[in-house]
Specification:
mainly alpha
């Protein structure tokens, strides 16, 4: 997870914690408080899913770059080896 993602996750968790505390200390009825808290947690869950999906896409992209880089190096080594065999 890169630094930007960590900041976003920390921000989301902080916002959710702040919202939950604000709801818990609000002078609403218990049912209203639970409804608000449930909605807040639902929104947090959706945000976490979105962030996880983004990070998964980033990891897949990184994996693809690494695999391509390795394939390129292997191909270069094969060509070099073939050239050495031809000149031996």
């Amino acid at each position: 997870m890169n630094d930007n993602s960590k900041v976003v996750v920390a921000l989301l968790v902080g916002l959710a914690a702040g919202a939950a505390l604000g709801i818990l200390f609000a002078p609403d009825k218990g049912t209203e408080t639970r409804d608000k808290l449930g909605e807040s947690l639902k929104n947090l869950g959706e945000s976490i899913k979105e962030t996880a999906a983004t990070e998964l896409d980033n990891l897949i992209g990184l994996k693809d770059k690494v695999v391509d880089n390795i394939k390129t190096k292997i191909k270069g080594a094969e060509l070099e080896y073939q050239d050495d065999l031809e000149h031996a």
